[in-house]
């Protein structure tokens, strides 16, 4: 039986990890690959590097990070942030990433999902989306540009369209829960993961080990992602996996 | 020296790095002479079946591969799509013929569950085999929407469970395939890759 996945997410800017690493016992706390190796050894199932560089030079540096990560890590990793074309995907995958994640570019140009899936296979293409509950619409609405711009797309519809176009996975971030540490957005994750036919990664809101147990018990998501709570060791990946096992959640 | 075939389909660098971490030399190449000369050959691959066969044909590698496997019986390992290519045919984006080194067909997962099959899943060995010796029946990382249905069940060395038994390791003589990514599969993946690489070196020393 397939296991549920735990995925730490690292924000990288100009080749350096930018937040939440000061508590980790590392020689070089800003080195994304060193932090990533630590998670590999701790039992993380996958990793995501989110490139938040604004400059062209920063993006070039990301390719070096990817190459170095591919040389070191024994688990798969996804790279997202600023990927806007098939050529961008090619460069990152060629450097050794296992998957690429696209967000705003996919909203503006949904054909990019098809083009990427056709060229590299669906399994490489993760469509990430930021969704927020809208009182008036009584539905979750998708935001682009890192959550800054409201779109007219609805989360469940957009996830289904992405799947139809060839996405291999959905990375679903709840803007309502993100940073709240009060648990994953269960209704949103349940709605999307039970409608789409591809795996869904829940993101946003994890604060305790119980939150992970809850999202796996209460919704059909395949994986759960978190960032700072892992980096600050508020939750240790190795302990989380033990706890999930105790609670009957099937993990590696 | 282990040759990793570069035909424009996927993540070759991780495979070569995994080998080098364990002290095995490898080269990434599409040169038939280098491939023929190697102690063993790895055919990795992600992407679509038909495109992959086209790329192999474009580089005149289909005959080279068939020869080193069928005539020379050189150690050969297909990974992920590379394993699927070893079989007769596939339904991916239309019907395509494969390398036909093992009889069988590649078809899509179908059912009311999440597809692709992505994540860590446990291996179950079908019986003892030199490749699996001292390897644990542990978790390895899968990511695929299509799976092989071999004609001969004895070609299946290990399976995993994803709503049915899915062939995870196949093998006949010195030809092997792994549906998961051993280079991305932690300790168990590393052990399996090591078993294969050691076989390459051992065979080479007896030639």
Automatic annotation (TrEMBL), chain A:
Pfam families, sorted: His_biosynth
Active site, UniProt feature: 11, 130
Pathway the protein takes part in: Amino-acid biosynthesis; L-histidine biosynthesis; L-histidine from 5-phospho-alpha-D-ribose 1-diphosphate: step 5/9
Listed EC numbers: 4.3.2.10
Localization in the cell: Cytoplasm
InterPro entries listed in its UniProt record: Aldolase_TIM, His_biosynth, HisF, IGPS_HisA/HisF, RibuloseP-bd_barrel
Principal location listed in the UniProt entry: cytoplasm
Keywords, ordered alphabetically: Amino-acid biosynthesis, Cytoplasm, Histidine biosynthesis, Lyase
Highest taxon of the lineage: Bacteria
CDD domains cross-referenced by the UniProt entry: HisF
SUPFAM superfamilies linked to this entry: Ribulose-phoshate binding barrel (SSF51366)
Enzyme class: lyase
Reactions catalysed according to its record: 5-[(5-phospho-1-deoxy-D-ribulos-1-ylimino)methylamino]-1-(5-phospho-beta-D-ribosyl)imidazole-4-carboxamide + L-glutamine = D-erythro-1-(imidazol-4-yl)glycerol 3-phosphate + 5-amino-1-(5-phospho-beta-D-ribosyl)imidazole-4-carboxamide + L-glutamate + H(+)
GO terms for MF: lyase activity
Subunit structure: Heterodimer of HisH and HisF.
Function: IGPS catalyzes the conversion of PRFAR and glutamine to IGP, AICAR and glutamate. The HisF subunit catalyzes the cyclization activity that produces IGP and AICAR from PRFAR using the ammonia provided by the HisH subunit.
Listed HAMAP family: HisF
Family designation: Belongs to the HisA/HisF family.
Official protein name in the record: Imidazole glycerol phosphate synthase subunit HisF
Species of the source: Salinithrix halophila
Encoding gene (name): hisF
TrEMBL record, chain B:
Record-level Gene Ontology MF annotations: lyase activity
Compartment(s): Cytoplasm
Catalytic activity of the protein: L-glutamine + H2O = L-glutamate + NH4(+); 5-[(5-phospho-1-deoxy-D-ribulos-1-ylimino)methylamino]-1-(5-phospho-beta-D-ribosyl)imidazole-4-carboxamide + L-glutamine = D-erythro-1-(imidazol-4-yl)glycerol 3-phosphate + 5-amino-1-(5-phospho-beta-D-ribosyl)imidazole-4-carboxamide + L-glutamate + H(+)
Residues the record marks as active site: 80, 181, 183
A Pfam family reported for this protein in Swiss-Prot or TrEMBL: GATase
Principal location: cytoplasm
InterPro entries: Class_I_gatase-like, GATASE, Imidazole-glycPsynth_HisH
Pathway it works in: Amino-acid biosynthesis; L-histidine biosynthesis; L-histidine from 5-phospho-alpha-D-ribose 1-diphosphate: step 5/9
Annotated Gene3D superfamilies: 3.40.50.880
Domain Glutamine amidotransferase: 4-196
Keywords: Amino-acid biosynthesis, Cytoplasm, Glutamine amidotransferase, Histidine biosynthesis, Hydrolase, Lyase
Enzyme Commission number(s) from the entry: 4.3.2.10, 3.5.1.2
HAMAP family: HisH
Function text: IGPS catalyzes the conversion of PRFAR and glutamine to IGP, AICAR and glutamate. The HisH subunit catalyzes the hydrolysis of glutamine to glutamate and ammonia as part of the synthesis of IGP and AICAR. The resulting ammonia molecule is channeled to the active site of HisF.
Protein name: Imidazole glycerol phosphate synthase subunit HisH
Gene coding for it: hisH
């Amino acid at each position: 039986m397939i296991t549920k996945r735990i995925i730490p997410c690292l924000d990288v800017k100009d080749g350096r990890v930018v937040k939440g690493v000061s508590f980790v016992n590392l020689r070089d706390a800003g080195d994304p690959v060193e932090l990533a190796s630590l998670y590999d050894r701790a039992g993380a199932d996958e990793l995501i590097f989110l490139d938040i560089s604004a400059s062209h030079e920063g993006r070039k540096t990301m390719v070096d990070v990817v190459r170095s990560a591919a040389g070191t890590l024994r688990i798969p990793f996804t790279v997202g942030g600023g990927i806007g074309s098939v050529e961008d995907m090619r460069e990152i995958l060629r450097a050794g990433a296992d998957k690429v994640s696209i967000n705003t570019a996919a909203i503006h140009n949904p054909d990019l999902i098809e083009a990427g899936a056709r060229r590299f296979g669906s399994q490489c293409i993760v469509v990430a989306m930021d969704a927020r509950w809208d009182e008036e619409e009584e539905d979750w609405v998708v935001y682009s540009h890192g959550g800054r711009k409201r779109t007219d797309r609805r989360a469940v519809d957009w996830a289904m369209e992405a799947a139809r176009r060839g996405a291999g996975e959905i990375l679903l971030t709840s803007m309502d829960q993100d940073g709240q540490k009060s648990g994953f957005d269960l209704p949103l994750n349940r709605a999307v993961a039970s409608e789409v036919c591809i795996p869904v990664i829940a993101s946003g809101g994890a604060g305790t080990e119980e939150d992970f147990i809850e999202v796996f018990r209460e919704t059909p998501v395949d994986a759960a992602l978190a960032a700072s709570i892992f980096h600050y060791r508020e939750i240790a990946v190795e302990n989380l996996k033990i706890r999930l096992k105790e609670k009957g959640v099937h993990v590696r | 020296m282990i040759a990793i075939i570069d035909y424009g389909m996927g993540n070759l660098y991780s495979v070569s790095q995994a080998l080098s971490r364990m002290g095995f030399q490898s080269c990434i190449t599409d040169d038939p002479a280098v491939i023929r000369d190697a102690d063993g050959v790895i055919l990795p691959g992600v992407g679509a079946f038909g495109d992959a066969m086209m790329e192999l044909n474009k580089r005149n590698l289909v005959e080279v591969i068939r020869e080193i496997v069928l005539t020379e019986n050189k150690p050969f390992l297909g990974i992920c799509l590379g394993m699927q290519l070893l079989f007769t045919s596939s339904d991916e984006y239309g019907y395509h013929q494969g390398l036909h080194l093992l009889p069988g067909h590649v078809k899509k997962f179908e059912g009311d569950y999440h597809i692709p099959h992505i994540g860590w899943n446990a291996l179950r060995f079908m019986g003892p085999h030199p490749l699996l010796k001292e390897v644990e029946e542990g978790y390895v990382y899968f990511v695929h929407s299509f799976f092989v249905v071999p004609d001969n069940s004895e070609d299946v060395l290990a399976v995993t469970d994803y709503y049915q038994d899915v062939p995870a390791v196949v093998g006949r003589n010195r030809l092997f395939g792994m549906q998961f990514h051993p280079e991305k599969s932690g300790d168990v993946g590393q052990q399996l890759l090591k078993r294969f690489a050691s076989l390459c070196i051992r065979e080479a020393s007896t030639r």
